[in-house]
User: What shape does this take?
Amino acid sequence: MGHVYKVVELVGSSSTSIEDAISMAISRASETLRNLRWFEVLHTRGNIEDDQAVQFQVTLRVGFTLEES
Assistant: This one.
């Protein structure tokens, strides 16, 4: 039998890296959502101060399977 997925959009941020922003968003989502299965990066952006990247922000689409009834 196939899976049915629910999709939500998240925005993660980090002062370290894009990868850390992704991990932070997924980690936080896993506190309230079950059965997380995949993610897709939609947008990447950041803040610049004194000619340096100081903040990374990533918009993700995250899919999770719905529980069987």
Remarks:
- The chain is about 15% helix and 55% strand.
- The helical segments are 18-29.
- The longest strand covers residues 36-49.
